[in-house]
TrEMBL record:
Gene3D superfamilies: Winged helix-like DNA-binding domain superfamily/Winged helix DNA-binding domain. The keyword Plastid does not apply. This is Transcriptional regulator, ArsR family. GO terms for molecular function: DNA binding; DNA-binding transcription factor activity. Residues 10-104 form the HTH arsR-type domain. The keyword Transcription applies. It comes from the Bacteria. InterPro entries: ArsR-like_HTH, HTH_ArsR_DNA-bd_dom, Metal_resp_trans_reg, WH-like_DNA-bd_sf, WH_DNA-bd_sf. It holds the Pfam family HTH_5.
Amino acid sequence: MAMRIASEPARHTDLDAAVSLFHSLSDSTRLAIVHRLAMGRARVTDLVGELGLAQSTVSKHIACLRGCGLVDGEPEGRQTFYALVRPELLDVLTAAESVLDATGNAVTLCPTYGTHGGES
């Protein structure tokens, strides 16, 4: 996907893939899983214990992230270890953290998407 940043306006259809990517990361559980997997591979059991979530919840979100092509599993014996597929995802997360640092509480206070307004 080639996003047009400054040279020409992007058409709505050009942004669909980016919208899907950011939507896949917009859920707090999926984002927590991605952050954890950024530290190294893990089993669902590891994620359940570390994130304090139900096994079914973690499995559902892992399936979503796998479907998006962001996470993949590697079976080892009777266990499956999950890892991030694209190391570039770490660059996206780092850039997002930089934007959040630069804007202070502006995103948090956003009436539509902030923690006290709209949908999350």
